[in-house]
Specification:
The protein is α+β, with helices and mostly antiparallel strands. It folds into 2 domains: 79 residues, no CATH class; 62 residues, DNA Binding (I), subunit A, CATH 1.10.30. Strand 3 and strand 4 form a beta hairpin. Helix 1 crosses helix 6. The structure holds zinc ion.
Length: 165
């Protein structure tokens, strides 16, 4: 299922997956213009699948505007499920720290693929060193969270446990 995205001035700009269109709708970045006669259902809510949506704000760079999961310290922790990516320790908002895989002092960026959730002891053990220098290994390579994961979480907030597509 594909969705046509119109700019705020109704000019067509792109065709996206329905998942991406749903995220734009649920984050109130876009409004529904026309829907398919198909639904995403849950026990308490149902969402009509978007066929055409229109962005609420005029954009010149759609890729930027549609960047649905903003990079932030908290979102990195959420992506890593509040688990230290070195020793697997379970953490929480108070105990989690953000580790730069390539340290900032060595040019490492604040980005999805250079930061992970880390416990205090692993973070201080690694210190200002790279993975090679510290002989530490990551549980999994860090990436930008997948769109489907984001959608699943967003639907979960609407108490959608199942959605039949
Ligand atoms: Zn750790």
């Amino acid at each position: 299922m594909k969705t046509l995205v119109l700019n705020a001035g109704y000019e067509p700009i792109r065709v996206v997956s329905w998942e991406k269109a749903m995220i734009l709708l649920l984050t109130e970045k876009a409004e529904m213009i026309k829907a398919y006669k198909r639904f995403v259902r849950s026990a308490r809510h149902s969402f009509q699948l978007p066929q055409i949506i229109k962005l609420k704000r005029y954009v010149t760079n759609f890729t930027l505007a549609a960047g649905v999961i903003a990079y932030s310290r908290h979102n990195v922790f959420k992506r890593d499920k509040f688990q230290c990516q070195y020793c697997a320790k379970k953490l929480n908002e108070k105990t989690a720290t953000l580790d730069h895989i390539i340290p900032k002092s060595k040019g490492g960026l604040d980005s999805w693929d250079n930061t992970v959730c880390c416990c205090m002891s692993c973070n201080s053990h690694k210190g200002n060193r790279t993975l090679e220098e510290s002989h530490m290994t990551l549980m999994r390579p860090p990436r930008r969270p997948a769109l489907r994961v984001a959608l699943r979480e967003m639907l979960a907030e609407f108490e959608c446990e199942e959605w039949g597509i």
